[in-house]
Write a structure and sequence with these properties.
Radius of gyration: 18 Å
Number of helices: 3
Low-confidence stretches: none
Mean pLDDT: 82
Structural class: mainly alpha
Order of helices and strands: HHH
Number of strands: 0
Helix content: over 70%
Number of domains: 1
Distance between the termini: 62 Å
Strand content: under 5%
Amino acid sequence: MKLEKEKAYRVKSLSQDILEHLMEDNTTYHYEDLKHVIELMARSVADLAALYTDMEGDHETALKGTISKMRIGYNILQYKETSKHVRRQDKYHVENLGK
């Protein structure tokens, strides 16, 4: 039961991280990326609802799957932010080489 509770806290933490990324004003995302993240979050909610309503299921495996989906969604958002920062650095690096 303790492990399940830790995994549930991980789900909560990931959801807060995802919300923080989405609420940042200076970041824009492509439609397809957001669509993919929404799909993963909807599947995570469905997993959690199934976990809650099916007391006989394998809770540990269900939580692992939910965490994996949420991490993938988080990584999609994080990757876009990181790649934007890297492109900005490369732009400045190229401009400085030309001088």
